[in-house]
Description:
Layout: E1 3-14, E2 17-28, E3 32-36, H1 43-50, E4 58-63, E5 66-67, H2 73-82, E6 84-87, H3 99-109, H4 114-127, H5 143-155, E7 161-165, H6 173-190, E8 193-197, H7 201-204, E9 209-214, E10 217-218, H8 225-228
Amino acid sequence: xxxxxxxxxxxxxxxxxxxxxxxxxxxxxxxxxxxxxxxxxxxxxxxxxxxxxxxxxxxxxxxxxxxxxxxxxxxxxxxxxxxxxxxxxxxxxxxxxxxxxxxxxxxxxxxxxxxxxxxxxxxxxxxxxxxxxxxxxxxxxxxxxxxxxxxxxxxxxxxxxxxxxxxxxxxxxxxxxxxxxxxxxxxxxxxxxxxxxxxxxxxxxxxxxxxxxxxxxxxxxxxxxxxxxxxx
Length: 232
């Protein structure tokens, strides 16, 4: 297995609470991996460490053949603007911007010309079936539409790795399945690696592989949501 993202012995605490207790994980290039477990088990913290948003207290985080946990905040930010994409549960779209501007924003931050960024944004709106929302602000969209726009924003830079933290957690079943369908389709088409954080068995079922966190550690039993058929 050629690992594109890895963590080795990751430890992370918030005050006296230890969220991660020596987690080691590797993700293959092009793989969709689901990280599951009950609320508070550390799965979102693990994603934030792997994505370079949080620095672990101990252990290593790497991307391809580079260790990134020691990089400066500026260097890790550049990585997230280029090779990494991040999708959160509530989308975190800019309320004052219509969809096309929200999606173009990561490209503008990279220095792409406004016209080119707008063209790319429109292309992604079309691919995800929401081109009619180009000039609509988030507050005027449904939850599913907002999350598809957020997915487009996460993918517009064509990242090698997409980190998705409970991407359907705020959606009803139908809207969630639509978002996941688009996410998986694009990942397969572009061979994008996906790290999918979820406590939902249906979501975990879209992944190639599932790993389970319990109390900040990987569960060696490997019995996860998709295998058990139980949503937590």
